[in-house]
Design goal:
Helices cover 27% and strands 21% of the residues. The chain binds a DNA duplex (14 and 14 nucleotides) through α6.
DNA sequence: TTAAGTGTTGCTCT
DNA sequence: AAGAGCAACACTTA
């Protein structure tokens, strides 16, 4: 679930904790830590404040008042929740940041495929991880997007999901974006030039923005998406919201793509 | 009961 | 060098 729209919602959750002084940190599962021990992380966080938050693709950064940035990734599932004092721990809360006021921020990660680490700053983490530009960043315009497509002979679905080329899109939203753009997932990227590339770029931005505004990542997020979204039907037996044809699936690199065989012509 | 499937990423092998 | 296969993990579905 956590692709760009969901992580953007988690960012808003983290923002609501800005300014609070961290009293202590509880790490229920050190396996989700990346490159730092539980003890060191607690030492580094204690007494600090979350000064600001940033997002790049599917990564969330909590920038600390005294330097250092907590870098979070949510894996194939996972979320961030603000928990009030006295409320029980959410299931699968692997790490919790307790604030002096009593509330806390819970990093939830059932499958333990996500990671939390401490970097000097977001830029350093981004460079090390080789993350491409965030697809919703204002500087990532249709020309930058078209240039990436022109430089790849791979299928468009893989290119959209390649975090080193552009960051934020995963299996779910790439299906939705290609559906909105009426493109077959196996279309070769460098065949999408000019108007076609621009059309796909606009579909990408609009789809992600719509998902964020629909409260993606909150509970029942999919049901709150517009009914013309493929995602509302993205399951075995689902039908195209546009023409009613049964959806079909193809596999690329082990990932299942859903598409409408009539609206997304090969 | 068991096995296969799943929203991600990163490694290995070709 | 790009792309396939698989492993990491926990849970759900067939």
């Amino acid at each position: 679930m956590p692709e760009l729209p969901e992580v953007e919602i988690f960012k808003q959750v983290a923002d609501s904790c800005r300014g609070g002084i961290i009293n202590h940190v509880s790490i229920a599962d050190p396996a989700i830590l990346d490159g730092i021990s539980a003890k060191d992380l607690e030492q580094r966080l204690k007494g600090q404040r979350v000064r600001s938050t940033r997002r790049r693709g599917k990564h969330l950064f909590l920038e600390l008042s005294g330097g250092g940035t907590l870098a979070m990734h949510f894996g194939m599932n996972g979320s961030l929740k603000r928990v009030s004092e006295g409320e029980p721990d959410p299931s699968y809360a692997r790490l919790q940041i307790y604030f002096e006021k009593g509330d806390r921020l819970a990093y939830i990660n059932p499958r333990r495929l996500g990671r939390v680490g401490l970097a000097e700053n977001a830029e350093a983490f981004i460079a090390k991880t080789e993350l491409g530009p965030d697809v919703l960043d204002a500087t990532f315009d249709s020309h930058s997007f078209a240039a990436i497509l022109a430089g790849s002979k791979r299928d468009i679905k893989s290119v959209l999901m390649d975090q080193a080329l552009m960051a934020g899109i995963g299996n779910i939203y790439s299906d939705e974006i290609l559906f909105q753009a009426r493109l077959f997932p196996g279309t070769v990227a460098n065949q999408l030039k000019g108007k076609k590339a621009t059309c796909l770029y606009r579909a990408m931005r609009k789809t992600l923005e719509t998902a964020i505004n629909s409260g993606a990542g909150s509970e029942r997020g999919v049901e709150r998406l517009p009914k013309e979204f493929l995602l509302t039907q993205r399951r075995p037996g689902g039908r195209c919201p546009h023409c009613g044809a049964p959806l079909e699936t193809v596999k690329h690199a082990g990932r299942t793509s859903y598409y409408c065989p009539r609206c997304q012509a090969n």
